[in-house]
Design goal:
Elements lengths: L2 E5 L6 H11 L4 E5 L10 E4 L19 H11 L4 E4 L1 H8 L6 E3 L7 E9 L15 E8 L3 E3 L2 H9 L3 E5 L10 E5 L5 E4 L18 H13 L1
Parallel strand pairs: 1-2, 1-3, 3-4, 4-11
Antiparallel strand pairs: 5-8, 6-7, 6-9, 9-10, 10-11
Length: 223
């Protein structure tokens, strides 16, 4: 098994995602540069947090045109598990793999703090290790983390069980307290908080984020 962590110019959490899989879980993990044109040998992909291409135009709007994203989109459409964290979530929405958009936080302030998430769905490739309703303590650090979508899309996400995480105490004005969502098949998940910063209790607020990474390994082994 091999995990690929995409690196865009401006990514700053790529090594944290690499560490979660490569050091904490001891799985072969590679960094994939933005101009990569092949995912050969890679079994799952993480799009990390940061400020891809300086967040010019719109967060994730330029990153979606990177050569590697063409490969990620094709792999996701064929069922490869893909996780987008923070800026990675923004990229997934811009690339059309997830619906909606991430906009400026309510109050227009950058939010950086540990917070509680509720697990709303454990039927995705990234959440099977969690109990429904479980509380996760993870860090959030974003200025454009407010999830928005039309009422129709929000109703579809709710009705199809594709809301994956909710904020217990909404820090950014996200509609319906949504912190993370999934694709229709549950293989692609995007969330604004950072589970890769919550994999070791010694250095993070908890190790609650590990469940996402173990879940993904399970999904690949079960395929």
């Amino acid at each position: 098994m091999k995990i690929g962590v995409v690196v865009f110019p401006g990514s700053n959490c790529d090594h944290d995602a690499w560490y979660a899989f490569g050091e904490t879980l001891r799985q072969p993990t590679v960094l994939l540069w933005h101009d990569s044109t092949s995912l050969e040998g890679v079994d799952l992909v993480v799009l990390p947090g940061g400020f891809s291409y300086g967040d010019y135009l719109r967060c994730g709007a330029i990153a979606k045109f990177a050569p590697v994203m063409g490969e990620v989109v094709r792999a996701a459409e064929q069922g490869m598990p893909v996780l987008g964290i923070c800026n990675g979530f923004q990229v997934l929405c811009e690339a059309g793999l997830l619906p909606g958009a991430l906009t400026r936080n309510a109050g227009l302030h950058f939010v950086c703090r540990d917070l509680w998430l509720e697990v709303v769905s454990n039927s995705t490739a990234w959440t099977s290790r969690y109990e429904l309703g479980a509380d996760l303590l993870v860090p959030l650090k974003s200025g454009e983390g407010r999830y928005v979508a039309s009422e129709k899309v929000l109703d579809e996400l709710e009705g199809e069980g594709r809301v994956v995480f909710r904020y217990r105490d909404n820090p950014n004005g996200s509609m319906r307290d949504i912190a993370g969502i999934s694709s229709a098949n549950g293989r692609v998940v995007g969330l604004m908080p950072h589970p890769e910063h919550a994999t070791e209790a010694l250095t993070g607020p908890s190790d609650d984020g590990l469940g996402l990474f173990y879940s993904a390994l399970d999904s690949v082994l079960a395929a």
